[in-house]
Design a protein that fits this description.
alpha/beta; 3-stranded antiparallel β-sheet; LDH C-terminal domain-like; 6-stranded parallel β-sheet; globular; 462 residues
Length: 462
């Protein structure tokens, strides 16, 4: 028997997010009769996803209803689940910031050194609205920064928050590259912090599969790194850089963890290509980011064409197979007790030893009507804690303290610590100029958000 719920989607105009969620909801019989409210401040994108969703559901014969609004408070009324995929500045503005920092100050593909102010402001506003309007709802956070934002929201509001990311699927990329034929026979764990997770357990058909990774690196690694050409900007899971980090730290890095590493992986494009391969040198380069933005724009254009053409066969365009997203299966588990095992970002509460309970960690969890129950994975290796996890935690605490206090000196210290910073004066100037870029101001006006240059102030004249 199905249970009807209300799902509110914040940032519904996302090119990669909303239609997939609609498809999964349509194909989940236990959620038949549910209602979805799309919310976005971009009315064109909002109209597009509303048209696509309603037509897809109608063609499939799914018992879902929809509405749309630019009013967040109205969208949250009666919500059982709130999905937040919004990205305030957007990829284009981010790319402009990176280019400015490179052209004027010589930073190679860096930018946004003022941190995640706009995302944190939006996330906290959404969480505070949920606490007032629909306090029993679950917030499922997909927009980055998941680690910083989910920690902030749970600490400041106490609402139920679950962050989700795609990085853990890198485990299956490892399996494919190794040639493992039965992925359903893989048993794995990759705990840590979001974008900082490590493969602590990797079993295949009941046996430790780490020796298979070692054999592949020894016998096939060099040939793969010499000849492999990525077809996706984020195709770096089996790169030389990933293997190098494995040898440095003793566990294989998973997903976006690979692209972090140390500054020495990222000094210039030749270095990046050495570690992360052709043709882009990983996802964070002046070659990859424009390509990534271009594919998003093409996806939006394609979806807009579908929305405006009533003859489009939405089942053919969108497909009739569920996505690999965890969101709807988690909702189904919480509502209908369809138990599942998922990779989630939730408050620690002892799941990883050595980290505070109110810090959001990324761990496996059992989901059913009892809730989201993180697995107690125990302790990570000391070396990984000291060199990867604890520094990341400290950086997040600095970010959140700066956000809460408005102390610009903490942001300045972040720029000063960057290995490409040449002088103190350059750091001060870059921070100020990025905060006052017309593109940033325009977004703040559009979002009716306090300007970042006003939020962060120096406590004394420096």
């Amino acid at each position: 028997m199905s249970k009807a719920i209300k799902v509110c989607v914040i940032g519904a105009g996302s090119a990669q997010f909303s239609l997939g969620i609609v498809k999964d909801l349509c194909l989940t019989s236990g959620l038949a009769g549910s209602h979805i409210t799309f919310m976005d401040i971009d009315e064109e994108r909002l109209d597009m996803i509303y048209k696509l969703a309603t037509r897809y559901a109608q063609q499939l014969g799914a018992a879902l209803t929809f509405d749309k609004t630019t009013d967040r408070a109205a969208a949250l009324q009666g919500a059982d689940f709130v999905l937040n995929a919004a990205y305030v500045l957007g990829h284009v503005v981010e790319a402009d910031m990176r280019k400015y920092a490179a052209d004027k100050y010589g930073y190679y593909h860096t930018g946004g050194q003022f941190g995640a102010y706009h995302q944190l402001r939006l996330m906290l506003d959404v969480a505070q609205d949920i606490a007032k309007i629909c306090p029993d709802a679950w917030l499922i956070q997909s927009g980055n920064p998941v680690f910083d934002g989910c920690t902030l929201m749970t600490r400041e509001t106490g609402i139920q928050v679950c962050g989700l990311c795609h990085g853990h699927y890198g485990v299956y990329e490892i399996a494919r590259t190794l040639g493992l034929k039965n992925p359903e026979q893989i048993v794995w764990q990759a705990p840590g912090l979001n974008h900082n997770i490590w493969l602590t357990h990797f079993m295949y058909e009941g046996k430790d599969a780490y020796p298979l990774i070692d054999e592949w690196i020894a016998a096939k690694g060099e040939a793969y790194w010499r000849t492999h050409v990525a077809t996706r900007t984020h195709d770096a899971q089996m790169s030389r850089g990933a293997a190098h980090q494995y040898h440095l730290f003793g566990l294989f890095p998973i997903g976006d963890t690979v692209r972090r590493g140390g500054w020495w992986y990222h000094t210039d494009i030749a270095t990046k290509k050495r570690w992360f391969g052709e043709p882009w040198g990983g996802p964070d380069t002046h070659l990859a980011r424009p390509y990534f933005v271009k594919t998003l724009e093409e996806r939006i254009a394609e979806m807009t064409k579908w929305a405006n053409d009533p003859k489009t066969d939405m089942l053919k365009a969108g497909g009739t197979e569920k996505t690999r997203e965890q969101i709807v299966p988690i909702i189904d588990g919480l509502i209908n007790n369809v138990e599942g095992y998922f990779q989630v970002n939730v408050p620690n509460h002892g799941a990883i030893k050595g980290l505070p309970d109110d810090l959001v960690v990324e761990v496996p969890a059992i989901v059913n009507q009892k809730g989201i129950q993180p697995v107690r994975v125990g302790a990570l290796p000391t070396k990984i804690m000291l060199q990867c996890i604890l520094p990341d935690w400290l950086e997040t605490e600095r970010e959140l303290h700066a956000f809460k206090t408005g102390d610009r000196t903490i942001l300045l210290s972040r720029v000063l610590d960057h290995h490409q910073t040449k002088t103190y004066d350059d750091a001060v100037a870059l921070l100020d100029e990025l905060m006052n870029m017309p593109e940033v101001k325009k977004v703040e006006d559009w979002e009716k958000m306090k300007p970042i240059s006003e939020h962060y102030q120096y406590p004394a004249k420096l």
